[in-house]
Amino acid sequence: MKNPITLIIYIIIICFSGCATNKQLEKEEYQLLLSYRNRGLAYIEEEQYLDAVKQFKSFIDIAPFEASGYANLGWSYLQLPNKLDSAEIYLLEAEELSQGNSDIVFMVAKMYELSDRNLVATERLHSIIDNRSDHVMSLYQLSEFYRISSETKDIMKSEKLLSQILEVVPGNIAAHLKFVDLSIKNNHLKPALSSLEAVRQILPAIPEEANIYLKESIRLLRNNDLSKSTIQSLIFHNLLKSTALYKSGAQELRGGPGPTAGSPISGFINLKPPIFNNNKKTLNNVNFVDITNKSDLSGLNNIQVMIHGDYDMDGDDDLFVSKKNPGQSSDQIILINQNGVFKKKDTKSGISHLGKDHFATSHDYDNDGYLDIIISNSLGVKLYKNNGLAEFVDMAQQSGLYINHSVNKLGFFDFDLEGDLDIYVSKNGNNQLYRNNSDGTFTDVSNISDIIANEENTLDQAFGDFDDDGDVDMVVLNENNSIFYYDNIRQGYFNDLTKRSGLKHIGSPSSITTADYNNDGHLDIYICDLNGNHSLYKNKGDGVFIIDNKLNQLNPQLKDFSAKQAEFADLDNDGYLDLIIVGKPIGNTNNGVLLLHNDRLGGFSSASNSLPPIQSPIDFIATTDVDTDGDLDLIVHQNDAAFVLRNDGGNINNYLKVRLAGLRAGSSKNNYFGVGSKLELKAGDLYQMRSVNKPVTHFGLGDRTQGDVVRVVWSNGVPQNHLNPQKNQTIVETQILKGSCPYLFAWNGSKFDFVTDVLWPSALGMPLGIMAGEKLFAFPNSTDEYLKVPGEKVEPRNGNYEFKFTTELWETPYLDNIKLMVIDHPDSVDIYVNETFIPPPYPPFRIYSASNKRLPNIAIDNLGNDLRSALLLADEKYTDHLTPSDYQGITEFHDMILDFGDLSNVDSVYLFMKGWLFPTDASINVNISQSNSTNLIFPNLQVVNKKGEWESVFDNIGFPKGKNKTMIFNLTDKFISNDYRIRIQTNMQIYWDNIFISTDVNNKNIRISELNPTHANLHFRGFSKTSRKNYSSPHMPDYYNTTSNQKWRDLIGNYTKYGDVLSLLLHSDNKYVIMNAGDEISLQFLESNMEKTPNGWERDFLFYNDGWLKDGDLNTAQGQTTVPLPFHGMLSYPPNKIDFHPKDKEYDVYMKNYNTRIITIDSFKNEIRNHIAKN
User: Fold this and answer.
1) Where residue 17 falls among pLDDT bands split at 50, 70, 90?
2) In 262-275, which positions are buried (b, 16+ CB within 10 angstroms) versus exposed (e)?
3) Which of 352, 733, 894, 1033 is the most interior residue, by most CB within 10 Å?
4) How far is CA 310 from CA 153, 244, 319, 848, in A?
């Protein structure tokens, strides 16, 4: 029973607060309230809870109707010993005032848990997830409640809750491993395997010891070994528990770093801020407080260079500092952020070298998931590789960065668009470009690059997609005022479009920065000037800039300010980027920082009064959330010293932090932190865009509770939407095919079902190697292919066979001719065609029949895994023994040994292998061509010779043409000993479904009929949602589960108009249907005139298609447009000088009458801007 005094307080609070709801404060009261709120949160951060209690009591005195005051007061009591009664009073009042705010109800649940009322606590948690199924803290706390139970049903519930968590935060390693433990405990081995496979894809590089246990856990789970997999996975889990990445994930699940799960409330719930006369022009809610002493940086001096980054992967930014010594030398240290306090590493950082440091930057150059450091030094360039523990190894010599002279700036960007980060070196005279080879080394390509010929002294450079065409461009700023704008035209080349760009500067420039300051979706440019001639350039969206004089007109003090550096950042979380400029006033030593607030109308006004006085000169400023409270703090480098200014009040408005996580295993080739990607956010009527240049991207949301949708356009061009993102949202790259082939669906008597993918032999403009000698592209031949359609997949309807030909990926098909071959045959045999991908000339068309199939007696891989059970039936249960490499489509080298027994008494042997291929793509092919560590090894087939050794009889047998295709090989006379085993070796990502041999493949008593289409209608359909059964199964489309939203950045140009296109599909005559992503052709073939199949016979089909396919990959030649149009007889694509299109008057009429649908990229550009959230 509560004591009487507590009850009296409780009654007084209810009476007092109940009569004051939705009240707006006067301006003076509001400012006083802010001060209590800010100090209270600061005390909580410093774990001074009694002081916090005093502040929030004063807060409540002013605003007894505001729920956050009671919540934070109750939260403070919750941290104190023997104060649960007081915590309960205030938290229950906060719950009532907030009308069930999820975060406050979570505090209430935690209070009940701490007071041993677990039943009530779980009821509160369930009430939260009933309304917000994505509330991670509640899901996790419920999971923990059920996990400690001895009841099987409760442990099942715990597993299910963790599964829900992974849908919200798929990049959380701690959640994955906890889920694996419970899934194995519940004997749910397939979900455990799937989660461990996901961990392998997203996990940064880990020690080999841990990797061994991860691999072994996966292998044992694949083999359904419950007991052994339990041990191995637990060891792996325990090894990762000590890592900062795991601890950071556990903190995300709990909601904070403290002993009590959850965190205080930063924003207002009931209070509406008063209207200030200048509300849009100043930072009314924000005050910056100097916490240098508390941050333990007050003794730091003689700073030459300072940068920040999360070097230990614990979720907050640390510091790298280079301190100057007398003469030409520096000392380097790493300061680890420990809850806002920077401490020197206990162990040596490994960063040490001679010379004087001038500049440093942090990026993950080797794509291992850890931030590395590269330094410009008087003696050259230093490159340090991070092992994930903020311990570094000097890699400059091994990497091939032979730069033994001083440089001005170093910039990382993916100039050749194949996924890794290259290095641009700005210096006095011609700049340099180093291509990343994706094997830890760089190659100097300055002599073949067209973006380094610049005899001026380069001061700075900036990278971004300035013309919004999907690739990264570059702007170079020179000491002599000249600015160069380089437009990326892909395949490693750029155009100098400086004159067209409108970029001109007059003065003494010092640096350049970019951001979308007016929220129109385009990257703008700001140039700092030492003489006050600063320039703000507004981007029109196409790489053409106009100077925005409004900034200087509204802020005349700028003309008297010598600026060294500027940074755009949303300091008050209102959804608009403010501008911080550092340097010194011309002619005096007054404040060296100018803070300009974005007025949301395209202008800026001074808000420097939010800062404490900072004497000039200021060399550098950085914005980062030092205390991880949701607003951006300032780290200032001033006159050899450092200051930390805490942002108090910025988190009154809501915020969103987005961290991108590219896949490290089986990747579509994005760099791990997504640098170069484009992020777009829509929250109500607020639209924002960021170009990703660091691991965490910050968005302010204003008073909006959360974002509606975030779209990331990854650096490889693939878009990915995330609805209703969390405050701290990690978006993990989804492994999808961006280009492969169109889909074919057939009516099976009850619905349209997926049959196969088509047009696989064509890959117009696919690069086979770039910048490794002469450019080579895939052959230009049309497909001219037959694909099997099993009879059970097709049933006539109203006298017709009906098919749907859909285009769903980032590609453009040119479909010229289709036919349907009807094959009737005895039901004692099965018919096949060879669906192997091989280059032209294609082998003659042939139908194979097989009856007496001989299945393998033994099928094992090089590790001894038994594959036989997966190969016995064509049941879409595939071999699952592959270990992915860094690249999609490539795995660790593996083999498969097949033993069919004694074949000495047979006259002929044909091998049939059905499976599917996960392909590489154009950009991956480019990346592989540059690397010395990775090669694509095509499958080869070997037999045993008389010496008992393996010997190749087919060096390259090709591979399946996409999903569920059959490869056929004549092995007659290929065996050269009495050992009839077969070995197939490759590192391609091929999964097998059914393998057998047949000794008689000659066609007997089969009946063939050929049908031309009688109906072909082109129209828009949308995009099928796809799913995978597991990691060894292909992505399968669901015809009836579609979305009509704009998905891909379309290839621009003229497409075939919607409607009847039958006449275009009857002949291979270069008059074809040009389809865009989302298009569908409905096809019919007349069945009513067909002969009935005799008794004991059955009917199968072959679908013939002839045409071409071009995908939109950033490295596909001419991949941005539908032109140049392909034609039969081409010698190369893109066409060479002797390739002439066989046009005539009939062809001109076709082009004029049919290809009249014009597609631009406007729909893709505006998809998120025009997004309307669904209730």
Assistant:
1) very low
2) bbbbbbbbbbebee
3) 733
4) 41, 10, 8, 60
At 1159 the three-state DSSP class reads: strand
Give residues with Cβ within 8 angstroms of 685, minimum separation 6.
none
Structure tokens at 1036: 């399968």
Pairwise CA distance, residues 326 & 319, whole Å: 23
ω into residue 1134 within 30 of 0, thus cis?
yes
Q: Quick one: pLDDT band at residue 925, thresholds 50, 70, 90? A: confident
User: 612-643, pLDDT tens digit by residue?
Assistant: 988 889 999 999 999 999 999 999 998 889 99
Q: What 3-state class would DSSP assign to 328?
A: coil
Query: Whole-angstrom Cα distance, residue 733 to residue 721?
Result: 10
Strand partners, 992: 915
d(Cα 911, Cα 897) in Å, to the nearest integer? 13
Query: Does the predicted model carry a pTM greater than 0.90?
Result: yes
Rounded-to-integer distance, Cα 783 and Cα 770, Å: 25
Nearest to 291 by CA among 25, 41, 473, 30: 41
7 CB-near residues (< 8 Å, 6+ apart): none
Residue 825's region, left for phi above 0, alpha for psi from -120 to 50, else beta, is beta
84: CB partners within 8 A, 6+ apart = 77, 78, 111, 114, 115
Whole-number Å distance between alpha carbons of 588 and 1083: 79
Tokens, residue 127: 């009430």
Three-class DSSP category at 1009: strand
Strands 524-529 and 1036-1043: unpaired
Contact present, 714 and 720 (Cβ < 8 Å): yes
Quick one: pLDDT band at residue 444, thresholds 50, 70, 90? very high
- In contact, 558 and 532? CB cutoff 8 Å: yes
Dihedral over alpha carbons 102, 107, 109, 112 (to 10 degrees): -160
SS3 state of residue 207: coil
Q: Residue for token digits 């916090």?
A: 52
- CA dihedral for 361, 364, 369, 373, sign (positive or negative): negative
Residue position matching structure tokens 């749907």: 804
Please say whether the dihedral angle defined by the alpha carbons of residues 432, 474, 574 and 658, taken in this order, is positive or negative.
negative
Q: Is the dihedral of CA 146, 151, 153, 159 positive or negative?
A: positive
Helix 84-98 to helix 102-114 angle (10° resolution) is: 160
Are 460 and 409 in contact, with CB atoms under 8 Å apart?
yes
pLDDT at 261: 86
Element of type H or E holding 597: strand 593-598
Are 1118 and 1124 in contact by the 8 Å Cβ rule? The answer is: yes
Under DSSP, the state recorded for 652 is: G
Return d(Cα 673, Cα 652) in angstroms, integer.
28
Dihedral of the CA atoms 114, 115, 120, 125 (nearest 10)? -20
Q: How does pLDDT run across 459-486, given as a tens digit for each residue?
A: 999 999 999 999 999 999 999 999 999 9
- Which residue is listed with tokens 């601890």? 247
Residues 7, 11, 12, 14, CA torsion sign: positive
What is the DSSP code (8-state) at residue 314?
S
pLDDT of 880 > 60? The answer is: yes
User: CA separation (Å) from 569 to 576, 811, 1028?
Assistant: 8, 37, 40
What separation in angstroms does the CA of 595 have from each of 283, 523, 526, 592? 10, 21, 14, 10
What is the Cα–Cα distance from 689 to 1168, expressed in whole angstroms? 10
Report pLDDT digits (tens) over 486-508: 999 998 889 999 999 999 999 99
What is the SS3 assignment for 860? strand
**No. of helices (H) and no. of strands (E), the chain:** 21, 65
What radius of gyration do the chain's Cα atoms show? Answer: 33
SS3 197: helix
Length of the chain in residues, anyone? Answer: 1175
Dihedral sign computed on CA atoms, order 229, 230, 233, 239: negative
